[in-house]
Amino acid sequence: MADKSVTQLQTLLDRQAIEHILTTYPRAIDRLDLDLLKSLYHPDARDSHAVFEGTAYEFAEHIIEFLRDMFTSTMHHVTHSNIEVHGDIAAAESYYDAYHLLEGDFDKVAGYFGSTYAERCRNEGTIDAGHEFLCGGRYIDIFTRCRGEWRIAEREITVEWKHFRPVTRGDSGSGIERVVAPAGRDLDDVAYRFFTRAGKARIV
């Protein structure tokens, strides 16, 4: 019984460590934190990410630059995960949805969403309003434990739905228009400040 309890406890701790990596990924992506993103993968990990196929470190370099250049803001959500641990290897299936805000001129909108959409938005007078891209799918991962630490060894994603539309904004002076609490896309974001402050706290 004692051995079984120890095994069950270790499995819970392993799952917790893996879930921490899965939920840290959105912070790395949305705050454009390249070092944090790389830290979630083993150095020899692979990532098959829709239009990208290569090493995880190559993906990290590519995606941070792409998101910085293409979008004004992003927000990724990991909604729930199914994790199976088998010793020093684990498989995880995590559902996600993601929000992206693109702001730019006709050429930028057409380059990403297509000229048909861009022409329609120009005719409707919404081409300069900003454009939202939403999508959802799953992260499918192999995790391995090396030197006592879990990291992603292989990732493949699915994109199972996607939608894009012009941004809708409230009238000037309206209640919804005044609801503004912007996030930082760097290490000055409030989350980093709060976590740093908590880490420096000492119990007296």
UniProtKB/TrEMBL annotation:
InterPro entries, per database record: NTF2-like_dom_sf (IPR032710), SnoaL-like (IPR037401)
A Pfam family it matches: SnoaL_4
Domain of life: Bacteria
Domain SnoaL-like stretches: 10-155
Identification of the protein by name: Nuclear transport factor 2 family protein
Source organism of this protein record: Noviherbaspirillum sedimenti
